[in-house]
Design goal:
Distance between the termini: 99 Å
Number of helices: 16
CATH superfamily of the largest domain: Periplasmic binding protein-like II
Order of helices and strands: HEHEHEHHEEEEHEHHHEHEHEEHHHHH
Structural class: alpha/beta
Radius of gyration: 28 Å
CATH class of the largest domain: Alpha Beta
Strand content: 5-15%
Strand order of the largest sheet: 2-1-3-12-6
CATH architecture of the largest domain: 3-Layer(aba) Sandwich
Helix content: 40-55%
Number of strands: 12
């Protein structure tokens, strides 16, 4: 081989390899730079360190409700132009886990808008700031709703809105909805059908509608066997009627109301926007739950809570509390009620004229007769104890009187041990 050719060939390969190395190094530097930028952006998104006028708010509201929230937040920014509110919409089935992950990393949002039953597991893990030491005027909040954010000696957040159960009906099938259970049964006998969820929390309103209660006069969980027997017996007889449909498939009941297959649907208020889209305002009727004369149907309700990250700096907490006060003042709560049918105001000064906005007025009225039940009690009462007995009665596997006796004894003994 010609020596000069070999040298030149080796030199060419050396230059090629050197060029390739330089290109690889440039690509590596570019990749590392992009990763660094992404980390910085993520960090800035999660914590507003160094930006004294910035708040990061996470929520899991639907698109329509989120648009109304944005409108209210923009109103706050008009009054406080130096405060930048970064909003992040997280899927409802992910918000709890993602918040937990970010807080464990020392990051996460300053504020979290979340349903109370998703909040309490985070509270138990020390991931929610206790607000009891802050000077907060709580007088504007409905006392019943305020109880949903008070746990033992802690104030775990501030209420933003509530959702509960109401009686939805198809106006094309009935003109005047029933005000009492007896009137409802008359309609059922006349051929009108009603859909009702099968879970304990969805059926509990019938206890108070029939004159009973799950609590004593001091608000402690305590059952009266006769009252429980009356409630379970009503459910047992209702399950046998062809026009009373008690089903765990809430989506099927919703579809049946829209299709005109049922006249009435005891529905969660958060489904109302979907029903409005499907039926329209002319066909969808909403009224309070029926009860026997002299009684009041007290459906359990849940609360959307404004909670705070324990890692948030003092300035962020102060700005967040200012924002929370704005979000729950009468003007913004009225906007919330009129623009988002699924969000029921928590400010007791809100008053809506039923002649101008009948649906919104009905939703505002139902929580005033609702029953507050904190997460711990609800989980214990419904999931661990009551649910098997209610399910057994509905399935025809347990006699209502026997179920009432066993459930009453079990719950009362358990709560007596905890006193």
């Amino acid at each position: 081989m010609n020596l000069s050719f070999a040298i030149n060939q080796r030199s060419s390969w050396t230059r090629i390899r050197a060029g390739a190395f330089r290109r690889s190094r440039k690509r590596l530097v570019l990749i590392l730079w992009l990763l660094l930028v992404a980390a910085i952006i993520s960090s800035c998104d999660d914590r507003a360190e160094g930006l004294d006028d910035r708040l990061l708010l996470w929520h899991s509201l639907g698109d329509e409700d989120a648009a109304v929230l944005d409108q209210i937040l923009d109103g706050y920014k008009d009054l406080h132009p130096n405060v930048a509110i970064v909003r992040k919409q997280i899927p409802v089935d992910e918000i709890q886990a993602r918040y937990k992950q970010r807080v464990n990393e020392g990051l996460g949002p300053d504020m979290l808008l979340i349903a109370d039953f998703r909040l309490f597991p985070l509270l138990a893990q020390g991931m929610i700031r206790d607000l009891s030491d802050y000077e907060i005027d709580l007088s504007a909040y409905d006392p019943l709703v305020l109880g949903q954010v008070q746990y033992r000696d802690q104030l775990v957040g501030l209420p933003f809105s509530t959702f509960t159960q109401v009686l939805c009906y198809n106006r094309a099938l009935v003109e005047n909805p029933p005000a009492t259970l007896d009137e409802l049964l008359v309609d059922v006998e006349d051929g009108h059908r009603i859909g009702q969820g099968a879970d304990f929390s969805q059926l509990a309103w019938l206890m108070s509608a029939l004159g009973g209660s799950f609590f004593d006069e001091l608000g402690r969980v305590k059952l009266n066997e006769d009252e429980v027997a009356t409630w379970l017996d009503w459910l047992f007889r209702a399950r046998e009627h062809p026009n009373i449909i008690i089903s765990p498939e809430m989506s099927l009941l919703e579809e049946a109301l829209v299709a005109g297959e049922i006249t009435y649907f005891v529905c969660p208020s958060e489904l109302i926007p979907e029903l409005l889209d499907a039926l329209g305002e002319d066909k969808l009727g909403v009224t309070v739950l029926p009860s026997q004369p002299g009684n009041t149907a007290r459906a359990y309700f849940a609360t959307n809570v404004i909670a705070f990250n324990p890692a948030a700096d003092p300035g962020s907490v102060a700005r967040g509390l200012s924002l929370a006060t704005f979000l729950t003042n009468p003007a913004q709560q009225t906007t919330l009620a009129l623009e988002t049918p699924s969000q029921i105001p928590v400010n007791r000064e809100v008053d809506i004229d039923s002649r101008l906005a009948p649906l919104e007025a009905t939703l505002l009225a139902q929580p005033k007769t609702a029953a507050s039940l904190d997460f711990i009690e609800l989980e214990l009462l419904s999931l661990e104890l009551a649910e098997p007995y209610v399910g057994g009665v509905l399935a025809g596997e347990i006699d209502p009187a026997q179920a009432a006796s066993e459930l009453t004894r079990l719950i009362n003994e358990l709560w007596k041990e905890q006193e």
